[in-house]
Amino acid sequence: MADYVLNSTKRPQAVHPFYPLEANIVGYLANQWSVPTLLGIFAGGWVVILGTTLALVRSHNPNMASRDKATVLWFVLTGTIHLFFEGYFAFNHANMPGKQDLFGQLWKEYSFSDSRYLTSDPFVLCMETVTAVCWGPMSFAVALLITYEHPLRHPLQALVSLGQIYGDILYYATSMFDHYAKGLTYCRPEAYYFWGYYFFMNFIWIVIPGSKCKCPRIWVERDDIKYCSIVLLCSSVSKSAKAFKVLDQQTKAAQGNGHVKKSN
Question: What is the pTM of this model?
Answer without folding.
Answer: 0.80
